[in-house]
Sequence to fold (497 residues):
Amino acid sequence: MTSIALTAAPVTTLDVDALIIGITDDGKKHVEGPPALPDVVRTSLEKALEALGATGKLGEITRIPGAGLVKARMIVAVGLGDVRILDYEKARRIAGAALRSLAGSASVAIVVTAPDGPRVEAMAEGALLGNYAFHSFRGASAASQPTPVQRILITGDPKDKEQAAALERAEIIAEAVNYARDLVNTPPSALPPEEIAQQAIDAARKLPVGVEVWDEESLARDEFGGILAVGQGSANPPRLIRMEYAPKGAKRSIALIGKGVTFDSGGLSLKPPKAMETMKCDMSGAAAVIAAMAAIARLKPKVRVVGWIPTVENMPGGRAQRPGDVITIHGGRTVEVLNTDAEGRLILADAIVAASQEEPDLIIDAATLTGAAVVALGDRTSGIMANDDDLRVAVYETSKRAGETMWHLPIPEESRGTLDSPIADIKNIGDSKGGMLSAAAFLREFVPEGQPWAHLDIAGPAFNDGGPYGYTPKGGTGAAVRTFIQAAEDVAEGRLP
Fold:
C-alpha cells in the first residue's frame, strides 16, 4: 500500500531513494522550483544536466546521483517542456511518467514549485496513477516484477488546509481510477456478471451507498429485455445493478450508466479471434461507475447520484439471441437485432429507460461501444455525444476539468434514419459509415423528451494495448472515472446540465 504525504522539510535533507525535480526547455536547462533548492545546488544540477544532454523536453527523464548535492540517493529531472503552457493535466502526466520510471524504489519525493491546492492535487494524482501495477494473477513471475513505490512525499505545507484537502482528494480519485483499472484487468473467468454485482456491493460497504441487484428472475419480472437477450447465450446469468448515493438536503441529481459486458465474443455474430483478445475490457463503463460511486460518496458532493450497471456476458451458446430476433426493451419499445455484436446498446437502452423513470437532472452513460470511435478519434480520445448541443459542450468542459481527453460530436438526424426497421420500432445497427454516431442515435431513442442525456464512447482510451505513457499503464486505464466524479460535482454546483 502506497502512502503519500506533504512535507515542509528542506529539499536537500529529504532521505528518499529519488528526488524528482522539473527542468524547462528554454535552452538553459533551468531547474524549476525556486526557492526549493539552494542556488549552489541548482547551479551544480544545471551544469550536470547540460553535460548529460538533458533538453527539458516534455516528459524526458534524466537521472543523476544525489551524492554531494542532496541527501536523496538519486535525482530524477523531468522535462517540463514550455512552462508557459504547463497545465494541470501535463503536470499529472509528468508526475506519472516519473513514478513509472522509479518502480521498485521504496521512497520518492516530488518537488512542487510554488505549491498550492491545484498543483499539489495534480502532482499527487499523477504520481499515484503512474505508480499503478497489476500483479494479481502472476504466479512464479510475480517476484521478478518491479513493485510500486511505497512512500511518496510532495513538497508543500502539511499545515495548509487547501493543500491537505487537495492531497486527500487526489488520493480518493486515484484510488478510484486504479480500482477501475483492477476490474478491467481481471480475467473474464474471474469476473462474470455475478462478481461485478459483488464488487459493487463490496465497494459500497462502509459508505453511504445503497445497492440493489436484479438477477435473471427479477430482470424477467421487470421486463429488461435487452439485458436478458444479450445474456441468454452465456452460462453466466446477467445482472442489473443500481447504486445510490443520496446525501441529506441534495436538491439535484445525476444518473451514471456504465456498459458491463464482462466478455464480448460477439455472440452468434462472432468476432475474429484477434478482436476477442482484449474483450475483457468491454465492462470498462461498469468499472467506471462502480469506482466513481465509491469516490463520490467519499468526496461528499451535495447531489443525489444513482449508478446503473447492466452487466452480461455475450456468448454464442445454444440459447443465444439470433440475427433477426426482435426483443422488447424495458418500457416497451421493440428492437430488431441484426448483429449480435452490437449488444452494448441493447443493455444500455434498458438502463437508460430505468434511469429516466427517476427523472434525474442529467444522465451520462459511458461505454466501450463502437470500433468506429477508435477509427474516428484514435485510442486516446473519447467521444461525447448528447441530445442537446449546449449540454454536449458543457460535458466536454467537465471532461477537461477532470483531465480526461475527449471530443464532442453531433448526432446527425440522418444517422437515425439508417436505424429504421420494417418489422420493429428500431433496428440495432445502421449504416456502417459513422457507426459511433448511429450508435448514439440508437441510444437517444430511449431517452424521453426533455431528459438531458450525454453519451461517452470510451472504446479507444479504456484499454491501452500499447506501451505505457504518462500516468497511463498498459491494460485497463480507468477511463471515464474522473469525468463521472467531476460531472457529479458539476451538477451539485450548477455547472451541469
Notes: The chain has a mean pLDDT of 95. The chain has two domains: 3-155, 178-492.
